[in-house]
Amino acid sequence: MPEGYRKTLIRQIAQHAHSEIIGMQPEGNWITRAPSLRRKCILVAKVQDEAGHGLYLYSAAETLGADRDELLDLLHTGRQRYSTIFNYPTTCWADVAAIGWLVDGAAIMNQVPLTRCSYGPYARAMTRVCKEESFHQRQGYESMTTLATGTPKQREMAQRALDRSWWPALAQSMAWGIKRFSNDELRQRFVDATVPQAHHLGLEVPDPTLHHDGQRWVSGDIDWTEFYAVMKGNGPCNRERIATRVRAHEEGAWVREAAAAYAAKQKARTGAVA
Questions:
Q1: Quick check: 249 and 241 in contact, CB under 8 A?
Q2: Does 181 have pLDDT greater than 90?
Q3: Which residues, 6+ apart, have CB-to-CB distance to 187 below 8 Å?
Q4: Cβ(144)–Cβ(83) under 8 Å?
Q5: What is the 3-state secondary structure (H, E, C) of 140-196?
Q6: Buried-exposed string 189-204: b where 16+ CB fall within 10 A, e elsewhere
Q7: Are 47 and 24 in contact (CB under 8 A)?
Q8: pTM summary value
Q9: Three-state secondary structure call for residue 202
Q10: What rounded mean pLDDT belongs to the chain?
Q11: CA-CA distance, 186 to 112, in Å (whole number)?
């Protein structure tokens, strides 16, 4: 395997894994405040799925010789990045729905082609990830549908969530793998799929220049200044997300130590029996 190819895969798979575990936070904050028991159960399952996705992807990186602890240290010290979309706050329940609909919808556009990428362990991990992300996207859209067809206040919540999430979701290029399509192609697929969904909900996409040219939906220019500011660590929740992740990692040290001790004990017992 060419060394450049290996390093590129490790970096991109790690960024994908980091995004999955950081992405648990904005939704996890709403588990105790979900509007119903049904929504709570769905959200718990979704956050659990994201944790699993991170594990699949860190495992894929390890097949390339990467060390998981080193990758986490790179994340915690800001030397490796995660998706900028998770540095925005979830101010109300509608934002949780918007994440499922828009963010996970955008992720699917990128991740389905990765199931056919050139590195087998990554492609196989993505096969399962994509199945679960499809559930997440449907859950988000169903929740937005409920809000958009509810009371005037609920409808207003849905519209404000779309206003907040549209441009960050559109700007996020999600360069996570050995890709088969360009960012511009993936972004266009996202726009063409999502705009009709918004119209079906009776919501207005926050882009006054958006129009259909007879073949596709043409969106306005993205404010890349904000995107790069968030990427450099100046987003609304950058420091909060990393601090929460580091604290969770440190508080979980005893679990990792206990698991390692148990594994060593079992190995020693097996050796003695042999």
A1: no
A2: no
A3: 170, 173
A4: no
A5: HHHHHHHHHCCCHHHHHHHHHHHHHHHHHHHHCCCCCCCCCCCHHHHHHHHHHHHHH
A6: bbbbebbebbeebebe
A7: yes
A8: 0.88
A9: coil
A10: 91
A11: 11
